Amino acid sequence: MKTNRRLWLKACAVLPLAACLPAVADTLDSVRQRGRLRVAVYNEFPPYSMAGGKGIDADIARAIAAKLGVTAEIVGYNADEDMNDDLRNMVWKGHYLGAQPSDVMMHVPVDEYLARANDKVRIFGAYHRETLALARNPERIPKPPSGSAAVALEVFTREKIGVETTSLADSFLLSVLNGRLRDNVVHFKTVAEAARAMTEGRVSAVLAQRAELEAALQGQTRMVIDTPHLPELKMDGWPLGMAVKVEDQALAEAIGTALAELKRDGSIAAIFKRYGISHQPA
Hints:
By secondary structure, the chain is of the alpha/beta class. Helices cover 37% and strands 22% of the residues. Strands 1, 2, 3, 4, 5, 6, 7, 8 and 9 form a 9-stranded mixed β-sheet that branches.
């Protein structure tokens, strides 16, 4: 091994640099040869991805794969500490416990800061704009929130509001109004659990991503969902897209072309409608 390494270094002193770099397979060609596009989705993240390969992200992946002339292999991954870890585990390296990365990852915020912080991936292909929304029991919260947080959220100094633990909504409510709402912010493992608590009267409202609220409250006619516009909420909406390894430009371009066709013919909107979710073009 040491001899081989010395020979490699000696050769690189005289050969062009490209000749000394390991060959990188064209992922798009590999996908077409094996007939499958390996797609990473989050485990148990309704309505985007659920058991049995169901969900909005999974269906979009299958539609894109069909455009490429292959089938989609939907692979579920558990969320890690943050998006940087997820991109590493699902796209460019794989998990240290042995899970291999996929060709493309769904549900990636198309964000310039995130892209700069992760130079091993290419983020692209926005297919939906997600927003924070407030679901409320109108018998206890009769008016939709509006104006500054001091006005719109003052009711939650008296009424309890549910959030998913360690979510954007959680961070916002714990810090806004100098922490005055802390005692009335109730934490739940999932948005679905928070929504159930609201229908049971244990909280009067839930702040979460709109799609998750719409999925959790399907069939409920008593509850109302509003989109709050609070100046203090710096990130009330963001585009969702995909990610591939940074060197997989050909794959990204092929997926981008397929996605554009699916947007034009209404397929993306139809997938959201099939799950009862309001699609917001990105």
